[in-house]
User: Which sequence fits this backbone?
């Protein structure tokens, strides 16, 4: 019998043909996880677990075919050193929480693929040429926060129809907050409210800032998006109750941890969905070819127990609009 060559056997299916992707299946990918805040904050909000769940749903197993290289920045000053340290570990792709951590990576690398869990405005931030075809080394989720926070003013007005003074919790070290302060301030003015900026960039500043807000007789607090604030959700919620102001944030983690209300995208879904971006990148797709995704649904979540602690009745309008009410 004529001997068959190896190639003939492969062609006939008698032997498996190892493709490049199959050969890479044994590789242990290094996925960077750069988070603006403490690790406990990533756990408390469920964002860390959501990402790992997304990876498992795609067939990945941690410490088997991927490892996480994690860096957490509790202060703005630690962001740049942590980003440099993470890049020196040579990750195949990085998942970044957003904010200062995202902007640090923009300055430090144009080659390592980066998936953003949250970005305020990718085009304005210099992360993408446009949302549908970013063209650079960044992709992920755009949270349209620049349009979202002015809408919080409407929600606050629905909760407190006679409100006249609004506090805005802002971080002076967040480069995106100045523009948000103006847009939220304009929306508040249109609804007949005076605005007091509550500026906090370090934990010891919370108590005096809330005391000053009380002296200014603010009746509600709108918390601008910032990873620094996320890690202190419980403390901000407790201070809001202590000083008798309703408070809002964009993510549902805030009312889940004791805040009054949230209105915005489900950020845990962003972290879970980030796994799909990472999967495609690991399989060879360039991040610049993956469109930034925008939220298709905004959730209204209310904490009824916090409302009771504030001595307020939740208006029927908000109850009917709410996607979830936490007791």
Assistant:
């Amino acid at each position: 019998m004529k001997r068959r060559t190896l190639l003939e056997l492969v062609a006939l299916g008698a032997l498996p043909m190892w493709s490049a992707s199959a050969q890479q299946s044994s590789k242990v990918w290094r996925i960077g996880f750069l988070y603006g805040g403490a690790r406990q904050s990533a756990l408390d909000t469920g964002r860390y677990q959501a990402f790992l769940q997304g990876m498992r749903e795609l067939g990945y197993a941690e410490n088997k075919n991927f490892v996480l290289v994690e860096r957490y920045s509790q202060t703005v000053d630690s962001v740049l050193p942590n980003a440099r340290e993470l890049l020196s570990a040579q990750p195949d792709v990085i998942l970044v929480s957003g904010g200062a951590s995202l902007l640090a990576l923009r300055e430090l690398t144009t080659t390592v693929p980066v998936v953003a869990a949250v970005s305020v405005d990718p085009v304005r931030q210099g992360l993408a040429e446009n949302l549908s075809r970013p063209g650079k080394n960044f992709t992920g989720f755009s949270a349209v926060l620049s349009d979202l926070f002015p809408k919080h003013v409407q929600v606050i007005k629905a909760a407190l129809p006679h409100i006249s003074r609004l506090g805005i919790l802002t971080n002076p070290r967040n480069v995106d907050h100045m523009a948000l302060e103006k847009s939220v301030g304009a929306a508040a003015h249109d609804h007949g409210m005076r605005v007091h900026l509550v500026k906090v960039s370090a934990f010891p500043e919370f108590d005096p800032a809330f005391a000053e807000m009380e002296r200014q007789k603010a009746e509600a607090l709108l918390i601008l998006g910032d990873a620094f604030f996320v890690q202190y959700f419980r403390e901000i919620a407790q201070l809001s109750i202590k000083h008798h102001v309703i408070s809002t944030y964009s993510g549902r983690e805030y009312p889940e941890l004791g805040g009054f209300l949230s209105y915005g995208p489900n950020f845990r879904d962003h972290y879970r969905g980030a796994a799909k971006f990472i999967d495609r990148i690991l399989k060879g797709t360039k991040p610049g070819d993956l469109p930034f995704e925008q939220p298709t649904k905004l959730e209204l979540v209310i904490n009824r127990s916090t409302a009771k602690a504030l001595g307020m009745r939740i208006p029927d309008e908000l109850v009917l609009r709410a996607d979830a009410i936490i007791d």
Q: What stands out?
A: Residues 267-282 form the longest helix (16 residues). Residues 1-24 have pLDDT under 50 and may be disordered. The chain has two domains: 28-143+267-289, 145-264+299-326. The two ends are 79 Å apart (CA to CA).
